[in-house]
Amino acid sequence: MDNYEIKPADNGQPLTKQMIWERKLLDFSLRNNLINIRFGKRVLQLNIKPSELEDRIYDGETLQLDCENTVCDTETELQTALKFIYRTSRTAMEENGANSLFLALGTLQWYETPKNEKARLAPILLLPVEIIRKGGKIGYVIRGRDEDIILNITLIEFLKQQFKIDISNMNPLPKDEKGVDVPAVFETLRQHVASQQGWEVQENSMLGIFSFNKFVMWNDIHTNADKLKGNVILASLMENRITWEDQTPDADARQADKTWEPAQFSIPLDVDSSQLEAVIESGEGKSFILHGPPGTGKSQTITNMIANALYRGKRVLFVAEKMAALHVVQKRLTRIGLDPFCLELHSNKVTKTHFLSQMQQALDAIHILPPEEYDTISSQLFQRRQELIRYMEALHRPQANGYSLYDCITRYLSIDGEEMPVDASQFTSITREQTAGIREKLMELDTIFQISGHPSQHPLEGLEPLNATQESTRQLKDTLQQFRQQLQEHATLQHFTSQTTELLEKQPTEQPEWINRLKTDNDTSWMLTDLNNQLQKEWERLQAKWFLPKFFGKRNFIKQYQQRQENASQALNRTYTQLQGMAHIQLPEDASVAAIISDIDRWLENLHSLRDWHQWCIRKHALEEQDLSPVIKHLIDNQLTAKQTTDAFFKGLYHQWAMQTVDSDESLRMFNGLIFEELIQKYKQLTADFQELTKKELYCRLASRIPSLTIEAAASSEMGILKRNITNGGRGTSIRKLIDQIPTLLPKLCPCMLMSPISVAQYIDLDTDKFDIVIFDEASQMPTSEAVGAIARGKSLIVVGDPKQMPPTSFFASVQVDEEEAQYDDLESILDDCIALSIPSRYLTWHYRSKHESLIAFSNSEYYEGKLHTFPSVDDRLSKVSLVKVDGTYDKGKSRCNREEAEAIVHEIIRRLQSADDAGKSIGVVSFSQVQQHLIEDILLEELGNHPELEQKAFQCEEPIFVKNLENVQGDERDIILFSIGYGPDEEGRVSMNFGPLNNQGGERRLNVAVSRARYEMMIFSTLRAEQIDLRRSQAKGVEGLKKFLEFAEKGNRALPVIPNGSENEQTIVNHIAEELRRQNFEVDTWVGRSCFKIDLAVLHPQHPEQYLLGILCDGKNYYETKTTRDREIVQPNVLRSLDWNLMRIWSVDWFENKDKVIARILERLQQLLKGEEESEAEAAAKPTITFNVAQETAVVHNNNREKEYQFAQLPKVKGNPTLDKALAQPSRIRKQLQDILEVEQPATHNLLCKRIAELWGIRVSPRLQAAVDDALIGSYIDMTDPDVQAYWRTKEASLDYPYYRTNSNRDVSDIPLIEIMNAVRYAVEQQVSIPQADLLRSATRLLGFARKGASIESQISRAIQKLISNGVLVENDGIITSGEK
Length: 1382
Known about the structure:
The radius of gyration is 47 Å and the shape is flat. The protein is of the alpha/beta class. Helix 17 runs antiparallel to helix 24, helix 18 packs antiparallel against helix 22 and helix 47 packs across helix 49. The strands form 9 sheets. Strands 1, 2, 3, 4, 5, 6 and 9 form a 7-stranded antiparallel beta sheet that branches.
């Protein structure tokens, strides 16, 4: 079977990527039925002569097959065969983008070797047809497609490579009056194979599935192998490393939102920030991977990327293998008015008629005026956007302390209790880390208090030791005792002094201040009585002496007393100083001796607890060093715990910081929520209007590039070639040839092309100008070998896909039906190879498809780690995923299907088609196997036969019912998806762990695709139960996923892990609002949603508790982290409104300043909703006041804007009898005449000016007059475009960018400035797009007003052409002139 597979040459060369790609595309094995027909389900033999069959199809006859014109014995056998062919061809068309159904006319019987006895058959001619399913008894009919009959090119290449038989002389095929001369083809082939023993041409016919599209792609990359290496992307794939240096900076949507005006991009459709970054980078020419999980807006992003690229003058090639994927993008392009400029050449519908009709549509594109207000509204929108950003940034911008205003507000609100007065100016330079450190130090005091007791009640209060060792404690005790003794002595002396007037008058003044503050009072319990009595007695004794002894005795006593008092004071101060070295002593301001001694006694009695007390002292000192003495005082004075103190301090601090921030920023100081919402509404309105203007501006730019056809098209110009083919229907030419003939015109008409990989290979020459951007959609399903050709035709590459979705598979090439036995070979995709190459990646993360969050919850949790931003529904408490348990049997040994499930699904379809509630909702069915798919289809068609009124509702609608399987459902979506698991217990109750493709590697990717197709509802019909899947018997990820999916369908969200809510501080405002609303008897839920995106708070409807009445969004962390204003104010609210949410915004500053007013607004809104009132204008989505519809635009009437009527200067002739001498005698008069002539007739050649002066003076042109004219022209600007024939202007400014040529001047060609001739040539090329030089000479001659082309005229126009070529304005290639401007 594999004798003829392509293998690397046995020449010692290594296997290259090029060889691998070619091997995957060119199949010369006997498995290929283009080489070796295997009769069976895919091929139906006919009893009709090939030539007759070809003539009947050529005449447009619809062919109905029966048992007479086929080899089928019974009608049942025939219908079974036709049904299989119908289904297979339909699937191949949908999946591969190419027709694979042909009538094979004639076969070549050949042998592998002369000795081989087994004959092989290969079709010779292939006539493209389609099979149509008719109702009733007619069944299926065959009719021709609007495509040419083709030779089996795979067979031709096979004969050339394997048998050296060259049959290239049959291109083109011989013709007769009814298309191809079939007998002549057979005869030619007979002649070429006559030398081969046993070979013969058989004149037979058959209907079958034949696919040669891979051969076309092989031929493309094989013949252009050397050119592929010139593409940097392909070179990187070949070398397994990136070979180019990407200089394009990564796009940042947040930065773009702040700094770039809207007019810098063209984004005609809604866009979120992740999409915006992809659009920006694509417009800059960056190559990247765009990861697009299910429902994340890939098609919309692609549409915006295409629009923005076209806006920037780029060309785009969009490639999708499945027509469904391409059709979605095409519909969006049509919706924004770009369909005339987008050429769709997807291979499954390409005909010359189709192609030429699109060309005509492009030529007919209406030229309109650009929107005058485009730039103005762009500026206004940018200004509004910046105002909204200013508030958001002011609210969330960290201040010098590390906290934003929002941080301060939420933290302030999160703290219960009273706040402590705080002087915030003391904390202006503190950092966030330091703040956290303070909080930690304060909070740990409660632990310290458990050890030491609260400081306000501690007996050691006022004594703060610096150390708590045993030795230091002993020394402190001794010192305290000494200090007490000395204090008593000093105080006793002081007391004695106060009682003696003479002593009091002589008090020592030099003593420490603290000693001076010591007071004695009536309490003398501290007094040293013995000392006091001794002094008293001594003084009384002296008082009793007579005068002279008394005088000298007192003086001596006083002197001694003063010395003693001074010594006591010094000793006391020394001890006090010594004491301060051991502890901080806190003496009262009005210290009395009694109080101090009392404190000392208290301290001495409690020194045993000094070590524990020291724990507090250390921390107190540390806090005081951080200027937190007021906090310590607040703690002690109010006898608070550390937590109470911490809360009070930080509540006060956050409050003051918040006030400071508000006062320092005008956008915050003047903030009011109602005014801000009005600003948001203006922004939304401007955005809606600008989006419409963007469509108009883009259309206008693209239409302006299409030639206006103000002159007759030359037959040999590209315009002439296209118009001729449109007129004659492309007779005698092919699409490829026609495209090759208009390489310059086609990009102007259709700068965007939408194609399949095969159509790229078929129609686009690799040597033509490269597309600026190549975009692949559904790249996870596209083998690299099939993508190579398209990549080679571009400069940059954008690969759009999802590595967690379907890989490329050999499923559709398999002739087997039994999925359990078939081994599908998952191939390498271009997406996988680009990821392996580490090409930069972008990620789309916002999910839009599912209109209920439960529909995507499983996929998001299981395959995307919860990273998709999905949006909750207003009925989020319910689930739209349901499990229908079917009491069925999996017929494992025979049909391998589950009839009970199939019948249950068909019953559900019929019920929904008949239900008014489901009117307008589309339905899709997904089975886990192909045989189950076919069974459901058969039962459905049979049932619809009993309800003919439902058949039109089922299939004749915008989204008809589909029945597909895991392998081919990617790219499709419907409102309601019905699953048939199919597998389950067999008749004996045994459950096999073989679930077809789910068991293979990549099975989980198939499951992910299948479970993410629904928009509104998903029902799983299953005989199989989750608990019946034994994961010990299967390690396949797909099987594990199936078990989890069934659990989810049965249990709902309980089967999924919980995604955490916001931080505690983030919840503060939300919780406060919730508490207030609960007090008003409303039931509320907070943080509603199953992904990272949440509705902050949702109020339940009192009468309908399964639904929410109002959703409240705050401006917290999620608001700030949303990258763009559009995301915050348009995209998110619009998506939520589409899910039936009523929304309201709560602004933090409003809540901070007046929460009662905010609550009143919420309650008012709730009452309005309960009364059924509509959304306010501020809350509703904006509708554009400007709309763009090209049919309603005023068409611009195009005239030749480069042609002008020649204007003659009307000057009076010189009167009298003028002569040359008189003229020469008046140089100033000649100068004035020349100036007047140039003012009207500029530019003018020197010779023409001489003629004009001669006419005015009535004299002949002579050398003397020419010299006088030369002198008079000094000061005029000379145009040096033509050094040989100078042209004069009044000023240089007048000559700049002169675009015209002038007619009806009766000038000789030598008197026409070269710039005018160049402008005429340039205009001719613009109109003809591309034209042979000979035809350009004739066209320019007519434009300049000459009836025929003489030698001098040809010479001047040729000079103009060469000048334009040398300036790069025109380009010449093999005698063809085109514009050099892109």
